[in-house]
Automatic annotation (TrEMBL):
GO terms for molecular function: efflux transmembrane transporter activity; porin activity. Belongs to the outer membrane factor (OMF) (TC 1.B.17) family. It is found in: Cell outer membrane. This is Outer membrane protein. Keywords: Cell outer membrane, Membrane, Signal, Transmembrane, Transmembrane beta strand, Transport. InterPro entries: OMP_efflux, TolC-like. It comes from Flagellimonas zhangzhouensis. Residues 1-19 form the signal peptide. PANTHER family: OUTER MEMBRANE PROTEIN TOLC.
Length: 449
């Protein structure tokens, strides 16, 4: 038994350790963020409310049904319910009944409210999906930022390790009298600067990890990390399409555009509802009721009167009423007319906003299209600069090793190649992100594969 408990504890410890060491991929981050974002959850509740509104609108077509009952006792002057004559006595009365009303015509407002409720549910779905799109882009950007910072940190550490070897060798040469002490001081300054770069790089990695974790609503920052992967620039033929082609396709599926268009349709329905106030309203009603009173007197058929029992009175004194009611608007303080005017203004605003949203999307895609080309060229230029700096550094190192270059000039060559390598990493991930943005507007899912 003791051995079994030990094994279980060991397995539990391993499981906890594995869970804490989990490293997240981009796809996992995106999925988790969409499922756990608080704003997404709020929008999902709004969508549920919109669906309930649709159920309410459907219920307006159905007749209502209400039951009522009243029990009372009266002492003193009152009206006898069986004779409708004044009486001065104590009586106990019970009345009960059911009633139903149904709208037969209301200027098509019920139909338009139902259509609006359906459109509102669709619009809320578009709004929710658009929020998820924004979250995917934000998470991808934050994820790539962590990758970029991690790759730069690896570069800083590798450079620092090389400088430490140079520092060790320089110390030996200075102690042997082959190099002046100034060269050692210069190498030590370079090493200190690179150590600071490593510290700053570690801070940037931590900050970017925290930023990504916050997007995922994760607070255990210490045990949160992304997968240790290095991504090359993915192949893409997105630039084979013009910005106009990408924009035209984006109009067919972008949720923000569909949400804006649905707001126009909602405004049109609101205008129809407002115009319905100009028309008369026709409704039908039906009522059934009965009553009981302890002073009710009914002829007994023998020229006498008697008070029937409770159940008998309910059958004897019951009755029904039914009919229709027509309400015609004649003057209502211009509320109907002003309501129509407001709805027309709201419709014009929604149409203008729809056009503005399309224009904003076109500008965004045009900018994204230009950015892809710009950052691609920036990455290629940074790579060429690094190649040139690396050759210059190799040449400088050869001269430094044989004493033909002083430590200051050598450290400058090393600094230039370090900066060039950092620029390559930065422009690489900037280019990848811009590429993914443009693909996203073309309808391609966000993936680094």
């Amino acid at each position: 038994m003791k051995n079994s408990i030990t094994i279980l504890l060991l397995l539990f410890t391993v499981a906890v350790s594995t869970a804490q060491m989990r490293q997240w991929t981009l796809e996992e981050c995106v999925m988790y963020a969409v499922e756990n974002n608080l704003t997404v959850q709020q929008f999902e509740l709004d969508l549920e409310n919109a669906q309930i509104d649709r159920s309410d609108a459907l219920g307006d077509f159905l007749p209502n049904l209400n039951g009522n009952t009243t029990a009372s006792s009266n002492t003193g002057f009152s009206i006898n319910p069986s004779t409708n004559l004044p009486t001065n006595s104590t009586q106990f009365n019970v009345s009960m009944g059911v009633s139903s009303n149904v709208t037969l015509f209301d200027g098509l407002r019920n139909i338009n409210r139902y259509n609006r409720a359906k459109m509102s549910a669709i619009a809320n779905q578009y709004r929710l999906d658009n929020l998820k799109d924004d979250i995917r882009l934000n998470v991808a950007n934050a994820y790539l930022q962590v990758l970029s910072n991690k790759e730069q940190l690896k570069t800083f550490k590798a450079q620092y390790a090389v400088t430490e070897q140079d520092l060790k060798r320089t110390k030996e040469l200075v102690e042997a009298g082959s190099l002046p002490r100034g060269d050692l001081l210069e190498i030590e300054a370079t090493a200190a600067n690179q150590e600071q770069q490593v510290i700053n790089g570690e801070s940037l990695v931590l900050i970017s990890r925290v930023n990504l974790a916050q997007l995922l609503q994760i607070t255990d920052y210490e045990n949160f990390d992304i997968a240790e992967e290095e991504f090359a620039i993915p192949p893409s033929d997105i630039l084979d399409n013009s910005a106009k082609v990408i924009f035209d396709k984006a109009l067919t599926f972008r949720n923000d555009i569909k949400f804006s268009e649905s707001n126009v349709e909602l405004a049109k329905q609101d205008l129809k509802i407002a115009k319905g106030a100009y028309y008369p309203t026709l409704s039908g009603f039906f009522q059934y009721g009965s009553r009981y009173s302890d002073i009710t007197l009914i002829p007994d058929g023998n020229n006498g009167l008697y008070t029937p029992g409770f159940t008998d009175q309910l059958w004897i004194l019951d009755g029904i009423s039914y009919g229709a009611q027509l309400s015609v608007p004649i003057f209502n303080g211009w509320s109907a007319r002003n309501g129509v005017k407001r709805s027309k203004i709201s419709l014009a605003q929604a149409e203008l906003q729809f056009e503005q949203d399309k224009l904003d999307l076109e500008n965004t895609i045009q900018q994204a299209y230009v950015d892809v080309g710009t950052f691609e060229k920036a990455y290629e230029a940074a790579q060429k600069t690094l190649d040139a700096r690396q050759l210059a550094y190799d040449y400088a190192k050869e001269r430094y090793d044989v004493g033909l270059m002083n430590a200051f000039d050598f450290s400058q060559a090393q600094s230039r190649v370090d900066n060039a390598r950092a620029d390559v990493i930065r422009t690489k991930y900037d280019y990848i992100f811009r590429l993914k943005i443009l693909e996203f507007y073309f309808g391609l899912p966000i993936s680094l594969n």
